[in-house]
Design goal:
alpha/beta; 2 domains; four-stranded antiparallel sheet
Length: 635
């Protein structure tokens, strides 16, 4: 077997040569783009370089899979010069290309503020614009060819050569032992290419575990970002207006200039699947939430509040960063997921808040932990951080009635002011109820109803205990949902009803925050609304507006199955991406039976609708959802 181990060592040394060049490219990438990155010290920089090797290995092993398989073939074929020449040719060509991607990004990154993705191979990329720009790019950055030539020469020169003992490769026993070892080695290679044991295969957003959004491109590499976006359809960016016309209709840039900041603590609850229909005080139907019904009488409640999406993965960007779901793919799972963005946590960090988010599910679920890091949360507390199986529901994570006291304990220890977000999970399918709570809540007409009652009781217990803390009266509690779930009533299953969720703002120390508000509002409004309530002063990009600002337009926007929907005033407007296809008055026509398209003059609303879509899609696609990036783009 000694010859076979020599074969394995040879494979390892060849792959390590590529790892070395990837690290060298990371250094070159940093030196060419220093202005985009920020470190506290040299140790942090070295840490990110080391973390990047994980992403390098994943890309290298995936792209070199054919080379690895051929290198593991047992038998005398490895001795043949022609076979070794074939291996060398594959190695040099493949790795020259993937290293070349990194070299091109030395300068390409300056233009898009993100690593290349697979759309560089799309017909749209090779448009007349690229044909015009490419010659100038080659002229201005000719030295990149020198780098590439150096890499090509080094790959050929330093490629480790074979040195097998021709007298050892004998016998059937050698062949079968070698074959068994090859299978084991190949399994290990695939495991390393996947990135480890985490819930999902390694993806771009996992880089957020090591650093903030600003430094993520340094941790990843261009071959990896291209690999992870292959097969994902490029999001089509709709364009209705010229840039000048667009800016005259709509701008997502918010400029808040308030007085002295009201430094209240903020606790945000995102309740899993809490449809408006389940809350009797909001829906007028049978209630499964007796505690929330009581709390509503002491809170500011928004009667026409809507989610921006229909899935949990779509809720976090909407609520925490005012990025509604307006593309086919969820933002967190898209090539844009590592864009630099504004967020509620990010702005409150600037104001000296301690920020955290708690979710009792497995780390990695729906990319929540990665997005939380990108959104600026200083702490993410999931199942790993909880560090115990106590209260585990057997499926998703920790039962709400167990994780909420833990949440309370941790937040009570925080320095004030703090902003903490709690994302519940017990009212998720399969709607498991802890043994001690079975039979205590109405079964209702749907399987989810009993779990809604249980989650509501868990909230009651939380507030009973939180009310004893000294920070309670200096806190604003915001309760909403990620999305709706199954509905009993027909109107809750319509295109409008399927987005109706609660927004309850409870400020025990503020008697002015009690009442009902009929303003049409959405998840994307939560971020600017909380900042407005706190008298925050600053500038940021948000596709929502403060519900407390009567001068701003108020609406709710969403996208599903190829149709955009805008709820504004008394109207629901549907748009295909080309034109308005339907207009309804939901309050008068809850089942949406009478299409008023062409019968009412909604030109201003349609202009706003189209401007919001274009602004969002173009900014997200250009990595321009942060004012800092906008300034760089202008320069």
């Amino acid at each position: 077997m000694s010859n076979y181990f020599t074969q394995l060592k040879l494979l390892f040394s060849r792959l390590m040569l590529v790892v070395f060049f990837f690290s060298l490219c990371r250094l070159g990438f940093y030196l060419h783009n220093q202005q985009f990155f920020s470190f506290s010290d040299l140790l942090e920089c070295l840490y990110l370089f080391a973390a990047g090797i994980r992403f390098d290995l994943s890309a290298i092993l995936y792209f070199n899979l054919l080379f690895v398989v051929l290198s593991l073939v047992p038998g005398k074929v490895q001795q043949r010069k022609g076979y070794q020449r074939l291996l060398k040719a594959i190695f040099v060509v493949v790795n020259f290309l993937i290293i070349g991607f990194n070299i091109v990004d030395f300068k390409f990154f300056e233009f898009e503020s993100r690593r290349m993705t697979s759309d560089i191979f799309s017909p749209e990329f090779f448009s007349t614009d690229v044909g015009t720009i490419l010659p100038q790019f080659l002229h201005d950055f000719w030295y990149l060819f020198l780098y590439a030539f150096f890499v090509l020469a080094a790959l050929v020169k330093f490629y480790p050569k074979s040195c097998f003992n021709l007298n050892i490769l004998k016998g059937r026993g050698f062949y079968w032992k070698s074959a068994a070892c090859s299978v084991i080695v190949l399994a290990f290679v695939l495991f390393a290419a996947r990135g480890g044991w985490q819930l999902k295969p390694l993806r771009v957003s996992h880089a957020a575990r090591y650093t903030g959004a600003q430094n993520i491109p340094l941790v990843t590499n261009s071959a990896f970002t291209i690999l992870k976006t292959i097969g994902k359809k490029k999001e089509k960016v709709l364009r209705f207006y010229s840039d000048e016309k667009l800016n005259s209709i709509y701008s997502p840039v918010k400029r808040m200039k308030n007085g002295e900041m009201n430094r209240k603590n903020v606790v945000l609850f995102i309740m899993e699947s809490f449809s408006k229909e389940y809350i009797g005080k909001l829906s007028g139907k049978k209630s499964y939430t007796p505690f929330l019904d009581e709390l509503i009488d002491k809170s500011m409640v928004f009667d026409h509040f809507y989610s921006n999406g229909k899935r949990s993965i779509e809720s976090m960007p909407s609520i925490l960063s005012s990025l509604p779901h307006l593309f086919k793919n969820a933002y967190i799972a898209s090539p844009f997921s590592t864009n630099k963005i504004h967020s509620l946590a990010g702005e409150l960090n600037k104001a000296g808040y301690e920020t955290s988010i708690f979710h009792g599910g497995r780390n990695g679920t729906m990319g929540f932990d990665q997005f939380s890091s990108i959104a600026g949360f200083q702490q993410y507390v999931g199942l790993n951080e909880y560090g115990s199986k106590e209260g585990f529901d057997g499926k998703w994570g920790i039962f709400d009635h167990v994780f909420l006291p833990y949440f309370l304990q941790r937040t009570t220890a925080f320095q004030q002011p703090f902003f903490s977000c709690f994302y519940s999970l017990s009212s998720h399918h399969p709607y498991t109820i802890p043994e001690e709570f079975k039979g205590k809540f109405p079964k209702g007409e749907l399987p989810i109803h009993e779990s809604i009652g249980y989650a509501d009781e868990a909230l009651r217990r939380y507030f009973e205990q939180a009310g004893k803390e000294e920070w309670f009266n200096n806190t604003v509690f915001v309760i909403t949902a990620d999305h709706t779930a199954q509905a009993v009533s027909a109107e809750s299953n319509t295109r409008v009803g399927m987005y109706e969720i609660p927004l309850i703002v409870y400020a025990p120390g503020d008697s002015t925050m009690i009442g009902r508000n009929a303003t049409v509002s959405q998840q994307a409004d939560i971020f600017p609304s909380i900042l407005d309530y706190l008298n925050y002063s600053g500038e940021f990009i948000s596709y929502g507006n403060s519900v407390f600002d009567a001068e701003m337009p108020h609406y709710a926007i969403s996208y599903i199955n190829g149709i955009y929907q805008l709820l504004i005033g008394e109207y629901a407007i549907w748009h295909s991406g080309e034109k308005v296809t339907a207009v309804y008055r939901p309050q008068e026509d809850p089942m949406l039976k009478t299409n008023l398209a062409g019968k009412v003059d909604l030109r201003a609303e349609e202009e706003l609708f189209q401007a919001i879509i274009q602004s969002f899609q173009s900014r997200v696609a250009a990595n321009n959802t942060c004012l800092e990036n906008e300034l760089v783009a202008r320069q």
